Amino acid sequence: MSDHQPLVVDNLVRRFGGRAALDGASFSLRKGECLALLGPNGAGKTTLIRSIAGRLKPDSGRVLIHGQVQQTGGDPALLRRLGVIPQNIAIYDNLTARENLNLFGRLFGVEPADLPERTAEALDWTGLKDRSREPASNFSGGMQRRLNIACGVLHRPDILLLDEPTVGVDPQSRQRIWGMLKQLQAQGVSLVLTTHQLDEAQQICDRIVIIDGGRTVASGTFDELLDASVGRRRRVVFTLGQSPTTLPDGSEQRGEKSATFLVDDIARDLPVRLQQFAAAGIDVADLSIEVPTLQSVFLHFTGHELRES
User: Are residues 68 and 74 in contact, defined by beta-carbon separation less than 8 angstroms?
Assistant: First the structure.
C-alpha cells in the first residue's frame, strides 16, 4: 500500500473565457475520512469535482490520486480508484435495481464472476433486496439515490466523490444514506461531498473545506474553523418580563423585551448575568443559548448564505 494521501488537489486553475472558475484551489483528503466541500453557488465546486474525476483538464495545478497525477482520459486503473455520484440521479428508470447494478458493474470493469456476489451485497446494503426486480421508476427519490450510490461503488473505489448525495430526500432516507456512507468510511473509503445541508456537514464530516471565487478560503475541523473565525463564545438571549430602561453592562438589547450576552463559560458566566438582571430589578422570563454553527462560520469566510441553486 502507498503512503501517499488518497487525494491531493494542488493549486488548480481553470478558466472559461475570461472567468476563473478555479483560481488556486487546494486541499488534501486522508484515508477513511469524510470531507465536506462547501462554497456559494458559482464558487467552483462542480468544476473542481469534474477536474478531480478527470473529466476536465485544469489550466494549471495538479490532482494527485495516491501520488499519481490525474490526467484527462488517463490511466484506466487509476480512474477505477475513483467513484463519482452526481447530483442528478444517473440510473435507468426502465431497468430493475438488479439490472442497473449489473449494467454499471460491467461498465466499471467488475469481473463477471464477481458480479453476482457484489450485486447481492449492494442490494442488502441499500435495503432494496425485496424490491430488486422492480423497475427503478417505481422507487421513491430516496430509494433511487441509494441505488445510484450503490451503482457508483460496485467497482469498490477507495475515493468517492458525491455531489449533494441527500438533496431532495426525506429525513428517513437521508439517515439511511448517511448510514451507508459511514459503512464505506469504516471500510477505509475516503469521501468528498458537496452539500447545502450545513447541519449535516457539521455533524457528520471529519473536516470541511470552504471555497469561494475558485480559491480555498478555509479548511479544517469544525472546531478549527470556529477558532479561526467567529470563536466558540455562546450567545445567551434573555426574554425579559418588562421593557428595560437600562441593561447590565456588556449586554445588548435585541428587541423590546429581550437582551443578549456573549459568554465564554455557560456554567460560570450565566449565574453572574442572572444576578445582574436581578440587581437591576429586571425579571427574566426565559432564556435560550445560541451556539456557533457552521452557517456562521461559512458567512464569516464567504460573506454569503449557502443556498441551493
Answer: no
Q: At what angle do helices 141-153 and 97-107 cross, to 10 degrees?
A: 30
Sort strands 7-16 and 19-29 into parallel, antiparallel or unpaired.
antiparallel
Q: Which three three-digit cell numbers place residue 188? A: 477505509
Tens-place pLDDT, residues 244-277: 888 888 888 887 888 898 888 899 999 998 999 8
pLDDT tens per residue across span 120-150: 999 999 999 999 999 999 999 999 999 999 9
Task: Indicate if 205 and 257 belong to the same structural domain.
Answer: no
Burial class (CB in 10 A: 0-12, 13-18, 19+), 76: exposed
Query: What Cα–Cα distance (Å) separates residue 227 from each residue in 18, 77, 221, 223?
Result: 36, 41, 10, 6
Residue 277 DSSP SS3: helix
Same domain, 94 and 220: yes
Query: Three cell numbers at 184?
Result: 464505506
- Half-sphere exposure in the Cβ direction for 256 (13 Å, CA): 1
The phi, psi pair for 293, rounded to 5°, reads -125, 170
What angle is formed at CA 194 by the lines to CA 175 and CA 62, rounded to 5 degrees? 140
> What is the phi-psi region of residue 44: left when phi exceeds 0, alpha when psi lies from -120 to 50, beta otherwise?
left
My answer on whether 181 and 206 are in the same domain is yes
Q: Which grid coordinates are listed for 265?
A: 463559560
The pairing of strands 159-163 and 7-16 is unpaired
Does any domain span residue 296? Answer: no
Closest by alpha carbon to 225, among 9, 54, 20, 38? Answer: 38
62 within domain boundaries: yes
- C-alpha cell, 113: 464472476
Q: What does the alpha-carbon distance between residue 305 and residue 181 come to, in Å, rounded to a whole number?
A: 26
Contact 165, 197 (CB under 8 A): no
The whole-model pTM stands at 0.84
| CB distance 127 to 177 below 8 Å | no
